[in-house]
Design a protein that fits this description.
The chain has 722 residues and is α+β, with helices and mostly antiparallel strands. Helix content is 44%, strand content 6%. It has 23 helices and 17 strands. A hairpin with a 4-residue loop joins strand 15 and strand 16.
Length: 722
């Protein structure tokens, strides 16, 4: 049953009490009336207010975004018109009415689509309680809605979002007539969700889980094998496939140069076929074929038509009979002429030629491998990588660094703070390592598209459902799954042990790459990246460009991972001290003080945002960094090493590989001393070798003496036990 306010809206068109300056749509009003749409959009195809499905894709400029629409059919009929009016205002207001803790800029169409389910949940609840208009809602209703949310079994994040949508609806009272307004008092007296639910979201760590260490290492290893070792073969095979496809009858009919195609003279095709058959006989070749469902191998006449650029129906001609009656063996597939030159562990990576139908699959796998390398090692957001365009790469002639430019969408706003739908060219490029540069170059050779990651690699395939032509994030995740499955099947067939292990969190989504990279940089700085570069090198390169700026979001990812690591380390240090671990060195007292104080201050601490971790890392109590055989109790003002970052940056760290023996920041725990003792044992063995060169012998003897001084000082400072 339709509410009285809704009936008034239908009958009168414009309701009484409409605030000055508020536009009110008619049934034929465009849904995207005040939104910029993509160039080339057909105005006749744009959604109207009266439609029950509103297509928002024309107002979304990111090439990697899938089709986006709002379906109003699931909204209860009594509420549909009011909900449409509210959403229409969200889409067309010059700026969104600000909420507490919100920045107030205009909501993007994709954001509106994402919040729509939370709005529908609220409206359905109201409908179940016999309400038919927002004007009927009272503070008692809102309290009951909150109580039901508190008792529901949905996640805390969804509870926060549903409360937030009620607040957003209330914040827009000033643009609606009174017949559509929530109560004048702020919902729940304006209290924060953390107070309403008496619980803070603690799912920061689990919201974007990192990829299991061995899974990520093996995935990257195979991606780089594709990019560095298999590229030449795949590019050649794909080029041959594309050329042959262009000679098929249907492709020739669609060709814009159809009138200029060479016309064969009578008997010319027959002579070409006779020459082809002679060549096969002399070389021991096979006719191209395919296997039928019942297991029989037959000539693939479609490929014969491609080979000779002949018309369909060649099999039924006299020339076709020459082929059918040639007596030549038939291959179960269509091997291409491209030779296999790539090596894996010193032997060819495949023992058979690439098949015609296999070439597009291998090209897609190569494109996916490039995506993995670029997205993971650059630290860029998946959408930013998928929107990269040709010629985005350049090498700085002065520094020799590889720079990768592109457009960005998140944070791209105009002078009024509203999102720029078409994005903005990045002023600061990413500084990337050599494997990323190699992957970009491979993509530019793989296809002719302006986008590096088009929806389809083959130019004869086109998307008809999306305005954007770049691969979307979900498809990229599916491609990674396909890549993993192909690798594991390849390993099983070749009896190889380097399969890609399953990850306990499931799909290797691109959104997990940044968190995983931050983990590897923090936990495995010397770990090899596919035996080519070190994560320490990746970190240094990233800090020099856009990925190192806070606008990129990556420093927050790294800070959060650094926070987790330091909390784990602090807990381990506290347990060791409590168990009687001895500490020596000039910073021993500072170490003991910081470990004890950090345990009191931070044990059980909950972060409410990833950005908060960056601020907390600036606390001196957390400036303890463990190295090999030493511990740095960092004081940037007195540190003797070359610091990574500036002294006033919360993310500043010591260069553990550049540790100076005379540094006043050094402390040594019993765990460090165990490592030093191992070094001493190894040096004593080499020093005792009389055949060692004199220079090496003297150097090792000097190092052995230095380490012995450290051991003596540590044991001498240990208090005797009673």
């Amino acid at each position: 049953m339709m509410s009285r306010s809704a009936i008034a809206l239908v009958r009168e068109g414009v309701p009484d009490g409409l605030p000055e300056g508020t536009e009110w749509p008619a049934p034929n009003t465009l849904v995207l009336l005040r939104r910029e749409v993509r160039p080339g959009t057909d105005p006749a195809a744009l959604s109207k207010f009266a439609d029950d499905r509103w297509h928002l894709t024309p107002a979304i400029f990111e090439d990697h975004t899938k089709t986006v629409s709002l379906n109003f059919i699931p909204v209860p009929a009594a509420w549909r018109l009011e909900v449409k009016h509210y959403v229409w205002q969200l889409l067309n207001l010059p700026e969104t009415r600000s909420m507490r803790h919100a920045r107030g800029e205009r909501l993007a169409p994709l954001s509106i689509a994402n919040l729509f389910p939370n709005l529908k949940a609220f409206v359905r609840w109201l409908n179940r309680h016999q309400l038919t208009s927002f004007a009927q809602v009272t503070t008692a209703h809102l309290d009951r809605y909150l109580s039901d949310l508190q008792d529901s079994h949905i996640g805390l994040d969804r509870k926060y979002r549903r409360v937030g949508e009620v607040r957003r609806l209330w914040a827009h009272r000033e643009v609606f007539p009174t017949c559509l307004c929530l109560p004048a008092a702020p919902p729940w007296n304006g209290e924060d969700p953390r107070d309403l639910f008496q619980q803070v979201r603690q799912d920061l760590e689990n919201r974007t889980p990192r990829i299991y260490e061995r899974t990520m290492q093996t995935l990257l290893l195979w991606a780089m094998r594709f990019v560095e070792d298999f590229t030449a073969d795949i590019l050649s095979a794909h080029a041959e496939h594309t050329r042959l496809h262009g000679r098929s009858p249907e492709a020739l009919l669609r060709s814009p140069n159809r009138q200029q195609q060479e016309v064969r003279q009578p008997g010319q095709l027959r002579q070409e076929v006779i020459t082809y058959l002679k060549r096969l006989r002399s070389s021991g070749g096979h006719l191209p074929g395919h296997t039928t469902k019942d297991g029989r191998v037959q000539v693939d006449w479609r490929h014969i038509e491609r080979l000779f650029a002949s018309s369909s129906g060649t099999r039924y001609t006299g020339t076709g009979r020459l082929i059918a009656e040639s007596g030549l063996p038939i291959s179960p597939g269509i091997p291409l002429d491209t030779p296999v030159t790539g090596l894996l562990d010193g032997t060819p990576w495949r023992t058979t030629p690439v098949d015609y139908h296999e070439a597009p699959e291998l090209a897609r796998l190569l494109s996916t491998a490039c995506f993995i390398v670029i997205a993971y090692l650059s630290g860029a957001r998946p959408g930013e990588v998928l929107s990269l365009r040709r010629d985005c790469l350049r090498k700085d002639p002065d520094t020799g660094l590889w720079l990768m430019g592109g457009r960005y969408y998140k944070g791209a706003v105009d002078a009024d703070g509203n999102k720029l739908p078409q994005g903005e060219e990045r002023a600061d490029p990413w500084v990337v390592v050599a494997p990323v540069a190699t992957a970009v170059k491979v993509l530019q050779r793989l296809h002719a598209s302006e986008l590096l990651f088009p929806t389809y690699i083959e130019n004869y395939r086109r998307s008809t459902t999306r305005l954007g032509t770049a691969r979307d994030v979900q498809t990229a995740a599916e491609d990674i799954t396909d890549f993993t499955q192909w690798i594991n099947a390849y390993c099983a067939h070749g009896d190889r042990a380097d399969t890609i292990p399953e990850d306990r969190h499931g799909t290797l989504a691109p959104s997990r790459f940044r968190r995983t990279l931050a983990w590897f940089i923090r936990r495995r700085p010397r770990g090899l990246v596919a035996a080519a570069i070190q994560y320490g090198h990746v970190h240094v390169q990233m800090l020099q460009g856009y990925a190192g700026s806070y606008a990129s979001g990556f420093p927050d990812e790294y800070a959060f991972e650094d926070w987790l690591y330091r909390m784990e380390t602090a807990a381990e240090d506290q347990r060791a001290l409590a168990a009687g671990e001895h500490v020596s060195g000039p910073a021993a007292d500072a170490y003991r003080h910081r470990v004890t104080a950090a345990h009191r201050t931070f044990a059980g601490r909950v972060l409410t945002s990833a950005g908060q971790s960056r601020d907390l890392l600036g606390n001196p109590l957390l400036q303890i960094h463990h190295g090999r055989g030493m511990t740095c109790v960092l004081n940037p003002a007195t540190a003797a090493c070359q610091l990574r970052g500036t002294a006033d940056d919360p993310l500043v760290t010591p260069d553990i590989d550049d540790c100076r023996p005379n540094c006043r920041c050094l402390a040594r725990t019993d765990r460090d001393i165990a490592h030093v003792e191992q070094q001493v044992a190894e040096l004593e063995e080499t020093v005792s070798d009389r055949l060692a060169p004199p220079i090496r012998h003297a150097r090792d003897q000097h190092e052995l003496a230095r380490l012995q001084v450290i051991l003596d000082a540590h044991y001498k400072s240990r208090k005797p036990t009673r």
